[in-house]
Amino acid sequence: MIKLGSHVSMNGDKMFVASVEETLSYEANTMMIYTGAPQNTRRKAISKMRIDEALQMMRDNDIDPSDVVVHAPYIMNLANKDSEKRQFAVDFLTEEVKRSAAMGAPQIVLHPGAHVKQGVDTAIEYIAEGLNQVFENTKGLPTLIALETMSGKGTEIGRNFEELKAIIDRVEDSDRLSVCFDTCHTHDAGYDVALDFDGVMETFDRIVGLERISVFHINDSKNPRGASKDRHENIGFGYIGFDALNHIVHHKDFEQIPKVLETPYLPKNPDDKKRIYAPYKEEIAMLKAQTFDPQLKDKIRAKHTD
């Protein structure tokens, strides 16, 4: 059985319980959550996250708690040229790893960082140094840090497999590192995910190793291959296309790897910039059926306006 879900929210008094309820509403069996808003580092105490209730709800509904994925906030940069800001990132990521472990989540996805014009080599050294500190701070915890493949916008690190490999090679406890393979990011970075995913996997295996992949982000792309833009599109409506993404979701080599949708919410109409309708239930159903519905967006809007 494929493991398919989406990003879900953790907010309000229900916290982790709300995340499970949202997952069930999409008829999904895995999920990805932020432990707080991804744009800031304000977090509630672990004791207020209602972890035990959420884990029991998962077990009652045949969701394996080990398939929960946590995503670190965007604002941390282990490669920052400012040493105080790098240390802040190390300290906060340390606490995020502890929160993930308390939730029973086996992995936390991390954007590796950005070199902010100091050069790729320096950034890679800083990132590895920071990860070494985090792992030293969390010895004995089983949580993996999954380095995400990036699109290459700005000065991002992780735009190619060689950069991820360079980080992994410099981390002492590298068994606690894995990779989150984002389809939109990798496509935008120039890899031919749409027409030659298996060839991309052969390249990844040669450079990094397929055994490192612990989660997929399943997103279509609004941009042609190599654009370095990172703009997600709904499944089947972008440059990667439904057939390629469906192939990845159902790929026999990755059946036991969680696949998480991060596709955009839909606006009331194509001209409205305010995105309010979650597409995940319909996209998950479409991928399960392995049949593309070109009217999907219209049907989602109609459901909310009937």
Report on the architecture of this protein.
The chain has 306 residues and is α/β, with parallel strands linked by helices. 37% of the residues lie in helices and 15% in strands. The protein is built from 10 helices and 12 strands. It has helices at 16-25, 51-60, 83-102, 120-137, 161-170, 183-188, 197-207, 242-249, 280-289, 296-305; strands spanning 4-7, 30-33, 68-71, 107-110, 144-148, 177-182, 213-218, 220-221, 232-233, 259-261, 266-267, 275-277. Strand 4, helix 4 and strand 5 form a beta-alpha-beta unit. Helix 1 runs parallel beside helix 2. The mean pLDDT is 95.
pLDDT < 50 stretches: none
Distance between the first and last residues' Cα: 34 Å
Mean pLDDT: 95
What helical percentage do the residues reach?
A: 25-40%
What structural class do you assign from the helix and strand content? Answer: alpha/beta
Please tell me how large the radius of gyration is.
19 Å
Number of helical elements: 10
Main sheet strand line-up: 1-2-3-4-5-6-7-10
Strand content: 5-15%
Biggest pleated sheet: 8 strands, parallel, barrel
Q: Characterize the overall form.
A: globular
Give the SSE order as H and E letters. EHEHEHEHEHEHHEEEHEEEHH
Number of strands: 12
